[in-house]
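Table S2 (text version). Query chain:
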Amino acid sequence: MNITAISLITGVLGILQVFQTLTTHKVSPEVRPTRILSIQRPFVIAHRGFSMLAPENTLPAFEMALRSHADWVELDYYHTADGIPVCFHDSNLSRTTNAEALFGESHNHPSTLTAEKFSQLDCGSWFSSQYEGTRAPSLEQALEFIVPSGVPLIERKAGDARTLCELLKRRNWVHSVATQSFDWDFIEDCHSLLPDMLVGVLGPVRSWEGREIPKEDQVLSPQWAERGAETGAGFIGWNRSVTPEGIKRAHELGLKVLVYTINDPAEAARLVRMGVDGIITDNPSAGWKGIGMASHSGE
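Corresponding structure-token output:
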């Protein structure tokens, strides 16, 4: 895997952080998503697990995220051809799996494979030979792994709200997870079905009510914060195009603001000083370092 010198340095920092915290911390039952939103410091979200050190959306990445003491462990999911939610990020299987070699070009989207076929995919070799044969778990398997010692942040890529909500109710995980999506209608549906579940909306929003949104209007503004709050969301996730005014309005509405995907500690520190509440990062140690830099900057 080719990486830049900067990535190598931050990766080493991540490795050091992981091995300084080899004992996975346990989260008591009351320390769940809503409780974490009330903590008096910015928090760190491991993007697709500790995806700088292990293949994204796999159990090794989730384990490393837990050992790095990330506050939340973010993961993505699609539905398979037979309706099973499985952990995966891309709409195309080519980048991180051997799907084309196994099943041909016509089976290159998560929804074109059954869960049984999906479970055969090698989701680790693309990252490193160390992870050859690593499988992507089903959403249920991933939550079962994370929930005892951490808080999953579920990002829905595709699938209906009812299937997710029924899974969470059946496994008694409604109060143990947070759910987010770029599809704000999906979040409204989840909030309607499970009002007690913490949900969040993602931006920037590129179209609204059939109208394309100009790039200059895709920043987190007070207006987008207000629209986000109307969905029942408890937090709003955005790229680094956030504004002090948008953050202030979100806070007035009771929303926390998370920013993705921040792997540079200096950038994380800048955003924290602006008022951002959470840093979504491939490298949790970079998030922790940025929070520390912000708290000691004297600004």
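Notes on Table S2: The domain at 5-91+138-295 is CATH 3.20.20.190 (TIM Barrel). The chain has twelve helices and eleven strands.
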